[in-house]
Amino acid sequence: MSIFNLISLEQKQQIEYFIELILKWNSKVNLVGFKNREDILNYLISDSLFLADFFKKSLVFKSKKLTFIDLGAGAGLPGIPFRIIHKAGDYYLVEIRKKRAIFLKNVIFKLQLSNTYVLEELAQNLFEYHYSADIIIARAFKPYLQVLKIAYPLLKKRKGRVVILANKPKPKKLPSNWQLETVYSYQIEEKSRYFWSFKPNI
Ligand SMILES: C[S@@+](CC[C@H](N)C(=O)[O-])C[C@H]1O[C@@H](n2cnc3c(N)ncnc32)[C@H](O)[C@@H]1O
């Protein structure tokens, strides 16, 4: 069964509108490498749907009032399609490039995504600006060890989790202040992909 069968007609329409906006803006702002709807859907958006499924099934994430920080959001992946499905809590998309941040603000406005915000900041500065979160998400942002380093102070107070979208079943090595709590695996176009969910050792 396709992961797209798990979402409502309204969510499918919002995702189609998001793809339309990506394709429209992509001619002027370098957002994504893929140039057609099918590839964007298969290779970029599917991950977000599996991510929503992962959150739905995981006991750790049952609280409705979670705060999410999505590091290096780019064109809004995995954040925007995830947010179309998972509407609870607050969601911060962190993106340092101005044009991409403007695109993200435009998408949030057009799709009327509530409690979803863009931070045009360096991820490394968030702690200094007193941001913190329950869940830090990263897809194609930086090597996982760097993501964990940036995320650690942001999660410390809330005993949260870091979820990294990966192409390998598990990380090679892990710093002593982290443990790998869960690995969720799924397939896209017959290739395996993974969510690594890390818990800080506090
Ligand atoms: C390779 S793209 C991935 C985008 C998206 N997560 C995806 O999976 O398609 C990485 C994004 O992170 C942004 N970025 C890189 N370093 C950053 C930093 N230190 N703080 C905030 N954003 C950063 C880049 O501008 C870029 O849009």
From TrEMBL:
S-adenosyl-L-methionine binds at G72, L77, A123, Q124, R139. Its EC number is 2.1.1.-. One of its GO terms (molecular function) is rRNA (guanine-N7-)-methyltransferase activity. It is an enzyme of class 2 (transferase). InterPro entries: rRNA_ssu_MeTfrase_G, SAM-dependent_MTases_sf. It holds the Pfam family GidB. It is found in: Cytoplasm. One of its GO terms (cellular component) is cytosol. Keywords: Cytoplasm, Methyltransferase, rRNA processing, S-adenosyl-L-methionine, Transferase. Belongs to the methyltransferase superfamily. RNA methyltransferase RsmG family. Specifically methylates the N7 position of a guanine in 16S rRNA. PANTHER family: S-ADENOSYL-L-METHIONINE-DEPENDENT METHYLTRANSFERASES SUPERFAMILY PROTEIN (PTHR31760:SF0). This is Ribosomal RNA small subunit methyltransferase G. It comes from Desulfonauticus submarinus.
